[in-house]
Amino acid sequence: MSLLPSKFGSLHLHLLRPPNPNPSPHPRRQTLKISSGKRSGRQRYPSERKVLKLKHKDIVGNVKNKYEGIWRLSKLGVPVDRDPGKDFLGVSQSLLEEIAKVLEFPVASMLPSEAFTVVRKSFDARKRLKEPKFVYVVEMDVDKLLSLEPRAWDFISELEPKAGLVEHMPQARKSGDLTSIIDGLKEVHQSSVSGGSGNTMLNGSQGSYTFPTARKPKIAVVGSGPSGLFAALVLAEFGADVTLIERGQPVEQRGRDIGALAVRQILQTESNFCFGEGGAGTWSDGKLVTRIGRNSGSVLAVMETLVQFGAPEGILVNGKPHLGTDKLVPLLRNFRQHLLKLGVTIKFGTRVDDLLVDNEQVVGVRVSDSVDRLQSSSKKWEYDAVVLAVGHSARDLYQTLLSHNIELIPKDFAVGLRIEHPQEVVNSLQYSGLATEVCRGRGKVPVADYKVAKYVSGENRAEPLHATSRSCYSFCMCPGGQVVLTSTNPSEICVNGMSFSRRDSKWANAALVVTVSTKDFGALNLHGPLAGVEFQREFEQRAARMGGGNFVVPVQTVTDFMDNKLSVTSVPQSSYRLGVKAANLHKLFPDYVTETLQQSISAFDKELPGFICEEALLHGVETRTSSPIQIPRSVETYESTSLKGLYPIGEGAGYAGGIVSAAVDGMHAGFAVAKNFGLCNDGIESILGKARSAGFLEY
């Protein structure tokens, strides 16, 4: 039992005080203390002070009744030795003690755990902390708390909002999977159906939905990655006749093709780490972290939908959620079965070779069997609209779009190398003495990862003309993972990282990439809309030549890379299964990329002493960090600004960066297309709010 000091005097007398049936809370006066991770107190920037002051004023003024709704308690820290561990997502006694401190409730064990829900759990092992701890965000149901522990009345009356720490919500957070959201809206508004000979209209406060009795619109969704799957799901739920076209294979066959690549070095150019059901993210770490707002309605809907199809519920709570390939495969199988039940036609092994255009509008697609390079099996399929949801490796389709004068805008991205350490080294760098608690993903604390970034001044002789500054940052860090081949052409080498759900490999890897722009493309005499694609291809082909063929990857120890020498021909063991070859990676990129990598790695070693070590191995090359182009589209309708009836979405179109942001983009696009065809009268913004763009990340 934990006893906390009470300002109400005797603990015994206070606990015997009967609950007040008609509370009249009088908030106490106090000085608000707001903390910041970067600057605090007088050091805080004036703009920061103003924002926090306004936020505090807003949340204090909005609390109309403390005894109803939900109180959200944030930054509740529980030391590792008092926490059940990373896999426990409930309310422990130690967490109740931290909650009791916030409420100033004297006996933590008397607080009913049923009144509290963990909505976020993260692990914080930063060196500046006295001790590593799990950090919680908890929601307190006031009605449930007072019904189970009436003596909490007076403590709730004294509870004050504090920006970022204690916040009140009039009602519980509403969320649900996408199917339930749409079905729920239909059911709620069923009573207000207005008849007529033409359409059936469902009207409601959050949107109006129209279901035509005329022919269903025929819509092709090209690509079965996250954006394509979610767009197809929305459109099918609204009654469209949807065909999902995927050049690759379903996950079962795709897994066998990837196995053949790893064992027999046979690359199936249409079924590999990039192409196939689920997109490139299927054989990756399955990260679900996002920069577009973890608590936004759109992101929550995507996460709930993933749970609906088999993802563990822990992704809704974990601070750094991820799935892993072994969890993604059955999830995608469930997703596919649901689409089939909705009447979606799914065409695997089918490549879109061209668009059918009439009077400046898409009227269909020309397709062929994806293994038929001569396109002798070509067919023409007519559609009312085409949703283009391809990934950023569908370079042939970019060329097809150009042939129809569709505008493509080159965009910045990043290129670099993938660094691999023994996972035990990363555990020690991040956790020190706590590293023994990792236990290959089965321990009390998460497998250690890292996120590093460095700005480098452009005042460098190696910089192209007019270059200013660049950033180098870690990308797609895969703890307990392996380096894999993501090439789609035998003459090119491109690598990425992947992990299984347990992250129990003995290696950790991450890309270290440097930002590049159109100025850099021009320096290599590469111009035009696809200059970025050619820039990527140039270094992928160089890497293939340096490796000597057969998908062998050129590698160099970090210590040799920093000294610009090749002192050894035998290198540390790598997780890459197709073979590695010692090479001088300084010969791979232009000097400005190489020197930026050197300066940044040196800075990373100061931040994480030991980052530069003999066991660390650099793999070349990582180029496909994001799409090299963007296809302009309408902000409201998602329709291409160059061609009517074409809807470019997701990562390949330049509007997403990762599984979650791609899914959100596909979901919003699905609503927009449905609205354009009269299947619904309002977009998803009226239900879940506007989605933030993933944009281009520059740390």
Number of helices: 18
| Unreliable residue runs | 1-45, 188-213, 695-699
Strand order of the largest sheet: 16-17-20-15-23-21-22
The main sheet comes to: 7 strands, mixed
- In terms of DSSP E residues, the strand content is 15-25%
Tell me the number of strands.
25
Radius of gyration: 27 Å
What is the residue-averaged pLDDT? 87
Helix content: 25-40%
Walk me through the structure.
- It contains 18 helices and 25 strands.
- The strands form 7 sheets. Strands 16-17-20-15-23-21-22 form a 7-stranded mixed beta sheet.
- Helix 7 runs parallel beside helix 17 (659-676) and helix 9 (297-308) crosses helix 17 (659-676).
- With 699 residues, it is an alpha+beta fold.
Topology:
Elements: H1 11-16, H2 46-61, E1 70-79, H3 93-103, E2 116-124, E3 133-141, H4 142-148, H5 153-157, E4 166-169, H6 178-188, E5 199-202, E6 209-212, E7 218-222, H7 226-237, E8 241-245, H8 251-264, H9 297-308, H10 325-341, E9 345-347, E10 350-358, E11 361-369, E12 379-382, E13 385-388, H11 395-403, E14 409-410, E15 413-422, H12 423-431, E16 453-457, E17 469-478, E18 481-485, E19 495-499, E20 507-516, H13 518-523, H14 531-547, E21 553-557, H15 558-563, E22 580-582, H16 591-607, E23 617-622, E24 629-630, E25 646-648, H17 659-676, H18 685-688
Parallel strand pairs: 7-8, 7-13, 8-9, 13-25, 21-22
Antiparallel strand pairs: 1-3, 1-4, 2-3, 5-6, 10-11, 11-12, 14-24, 15-20, 15-23, 16-17, 17-20, 18-19, 21-23
Helix pairs in contact: 7-17, 9-17
